[in-house]
Input
Amino acid sequence: MIPLVAVVRLRNEDSRTFRLWIPLFLVWLLLLPLGVLLSPFIFIACLVCQVNPIRGVAVMWQILNALADTNVEVEHRTAGFSFHIV
Amino acid sequence: MNEHRRQILEMLSQGKINADEAERLIAAIEEPAAAGAPDAGSAASAKPRPKYLRVQVDSEDDGGHDCPTKVNVRVPMQLLRAGVKLAGLMPAQALHRANEAMQEHGVPFDLSQIKPENLEELVEHLNDLTVDVDQKDANSKVKVRVFCE
Output
């Protein structure tokens, strides 16, 4: 299943934490028509680069699906950052 | 195991042993392998498949005066698999350029030798990967761990 939400957490020197929930499902919905519009160009680019377009799309879809549960945290005394894809 | 077999065949070709003795010796070295194979297979299947590749970095700069930096990255193994598949889509021209660039930097590695059928095996072998790096000097102390869980 493709990731639906990303959580970004930022902490500043005063230990104030800002948490930002990014609704990825809205991003996908916005990108979907764009992808459909760009599909002929993507197809041509794949042919020029000698890449099977169907395989390319399949791999990109797999990457999108595999993004869920990715977690990156950086903590320092003065600041902190974390990024989690749900 | 192949080395033992080769030694036996060499002894046979040199006439030190006859064909019957060679056959018995080969059978003798094959028996323990056949007996041990199921155990090894069950041990591998009993081992849970790791789900994540973890990278942890603990760094203390300024002589460790209460200023540590911690980095914790957790990447799903599925993402690695998909990423490796994406690398498999690289066109031949790009592979050629990448090979040239790596050879210029002293890395004699041929990316075109990585076949799609080997990619899954490559990722599977990451399961046993554990890298620990400890670096200590006057001003900093860095500890890096890369492992699968």
